[in-house]
Amino acid sequence: MTSPRLLTVNAVEPDEALLAQAARLVHDGGLVAFPTETVYGLAADATNPQAIDRLNRVKGRPPEKPYSIHLYDVEQLHRFVSEVPSLARHLIERFWPGPLTIVMPGKDGATVGFRLPSHPVARMFLRACQRPVVAPSANRSGFPPPTDGKEVLAALDGQFDCLLDAGPTPLGRESTVVSVIGGRCDVLREGAIPREKIL
Question: Beta 184-189 vs 176-181: how paired, if at all?
Fold first, then answer.
């Protein structure tokens, strides 16, 4: 197994050429670790079944457990949902871009989680990928999510293709996850945004 490619990027003004290199790996079915404002994520092409299978193996995650789609722009939502629920629109206006994952009905009737991170590296990298990206935390399931590049390398034992290392994540805690279905808002996981702020 070859070692992951390590790309050191500026957290505030990242080099677009470096992000394009990483995005090409995602195009080719690779796995790329990158920073968000919460923790480091592990990106894979959401439209590539082989990439998703590999992501499941690396994370030790059951295939029936769904992943959230990471966005670089709110307008991308309309590719996946027929209508954004009014409660979801309110949360989007208040908390996006930021550490909030919103689960809502997708076009095919299944529920889908969406997140729009605020970290400059994440936004530019996701835009460069030019396709839907899933990005769970860059760790084995059941273990603490990594908040810097060294933790990513230790957590995944080199079983990925590239690390965009921008130093420690600003918040160091996973996103809050809410479900907005049928006019209800339920907090599924309390993370960087307190439950009280959501409700």
Answer: antiparallel
